[in-house]
Write a structure and sequence with these properties.
By secondary structure, the chain is an alpha/beta fold. It is about 45% helix and about 20% strand. Keywords: Cytoplasm, Endonuclease, Hydrolase, Metal-binding, Nuclease, Ribosome biogenesis, rRNA processing, Zinc.
Length: about 160
């Protein structure tokens, strides 16, 4: 099971997005049937908030849609660490890492891509979770294709298939 802890740096509450993001993160984690429980922290921000983190951490001075900060070593869904060393002694969970999602950017991209804000929020969450679980898209070939296939598999399981 995955425990999702949600934080928000936004003024207004967003209960629908919060619930959807939690479900998407849990669906991505469940895809792998890991024999351990885990946790992830997700923070909802606006474009300025994600821009500041992107600038400070990655030295890229622009807003982006989502940032992922993995804490453990995974390779395409395969855990490469030590359960005994990496488990939180209090909870027994592995902490996967942190995710920042710009809800402002997610809503704009949904309009730009012609699909719902729900699908975009779920997509960004799944995309980020896969980064935490060792997927990447640095090439335009097999890595990207594997990641995209997993993303669509999770979204389809949630009833959020890509609209053709």
């Amino acid at each position: 099971m995955l425990e999702v802890t949600l934080y928000s740096e936004l003024e207004a509450e967003h209960p629908q997005e919060r619930q959807l993001i939690t479900q998407a993160a849990q669906a991505a984690f469940a895809l792998f049937d890991f024999p351990f429980d885990a946790g992830v922290d997700v923070t909802l921000v606006d474009d300025e908030g994600i821009r500041a983190v992107n600038r400070d951490i990655r030295q890229i001075d622009r807003a982006t849609d989502v940032l992922s900060f993995p804490m453990l070593e995974f390779s395409e869904g395969q855990y490469g660490g030590s359960l005994e060393q990496d488990r939180d002694p209090d909870t027994g969970r592995l902490f996967l890492g942190d995710v920042l999602i710009s809800l402002e950017r997610a809503r704009a991209q949904a309009q730009e891509y012609g699909h719902s804000a729900e699908r975009e929020c779920a997509y960004l969450t799944v995309h980020s979770m896969l980064h935490l679980l060792g997927y990447d898209h640095m090439d335009e070939g097999p890595q990207k294709a594997a990641m995209r296939a997993r993303e669509e598999e999770v979204l389809a399981s949630m009833g959020l298939k890509r609209e053709e």
